[in-house]
Amino acid sequence: VMSRLGFPWEEMEKINPRLVYCAISGFGQTGPDAKKPAYDQIIQGLSGAMDVNGDERLHPLRAGFPICDTVGGLNAAFAVMAGLFHRERTGEGQKIDIALLDSIMPLMGWVAANLLIGGKPPVPMGNDNFTAAPSGAFRTKDGYINIAANQQKQWEDLTDLVGLPELKTDSRFQERDTRKANRKALTPILEEKLTQNTTEHWVEVFNAKGIPSGDILSLEKALTSDQIKHRETIVSVKESGIGDIQIFNLSAKFSKTPGSIDAPPPRLSAHTEEILAGLGYSKEDQQALKEKMVI
């Protein structure tokens, strides 16, 4: 896009050799697909991300938010910081080429490694965790609960808490690998007990015993949970003409250099005049740029 707009890296580098120039695209600046158009949905499909989601009833399945766009932006942010660090040490700028396709694939981690190294393709398992059992979503009396009894002790404690101590000596479920192989038999046995009480009850009981578990919240409940309020993950700021709006705060908590979001996102061209004035453009210069529709 930048080249099409007349700002290619090759020309910008001549003007400012210290420039850190980051280009984000679907497929990167090189390769057979470099010129193809792309959105997040396209990259989810081409990266294999949709192949590792879903289950035998619904597969392939896209993530419920633009994960490739998001990860591409995070990758670019880290890369730009590395570029700035290099510039501080050497005085040199550089071009950074970020592809959404490249960015999302490493996040599949062991799922991809199982295929690359172990030769085992992914099996769509829905809400179940491939690495352990019971580890996934289970029905309760009033909804669902996430349980991750990944360690042997956690599994054994869970059987006692739900009133099924005999499962500890059941050959189908005694060891981690056999539990994984027999998860389809295990789930209904556990749910028969879990559906006798509420999600809140089981979450409290399991967590007290060191078994990771949690409710499966709606987005609205998640955004307004006590933990999110305590962490000030969402803050209220005033927007002119609208009033108070809720936006995400900085999520990293720095002990020495704390930061916060105190103003709403700027509207289009909100700071153009201020920035251009700081660069030495007079009001007349800026008016001329406006007349040429540059700004």
Describe this structure in words.
The chain is of the alpha+beta class and about 300 residues long. The chain has four domains: about 10-115, Rossmann fold (3-Layer(aba) Sandwich); about 135-215, formyl-coa transferase, domain 3, CATH 3.30.1540; about 215-265, no CATH class; about 265-295, no CATH class. The chain is built from 13 helices and seven strands. It has helices spanning about 10-15, 40-45, 65-90, 100-105, 110-115, 150-160, 175-180, 185-195, 200-210, 220-225, 225-230, 270-280, 285-290; strands at about 20-25, 95-100, 135-140, 145-150, 215, 235-240, 245-250. A three-stranded antiparallel beta sheet has the order 3-4-5, covered by helices on one side. The chain has a two-stranded parallel ribbon with strand order 1-2. Strands 6-7 form a two-stranded antiparallel ribbon. The longest helix is centred in the first third of the chain and has 24 residues, at about 65-90. The chain starts with 8 loop residues before the first helix and ends with a helix.
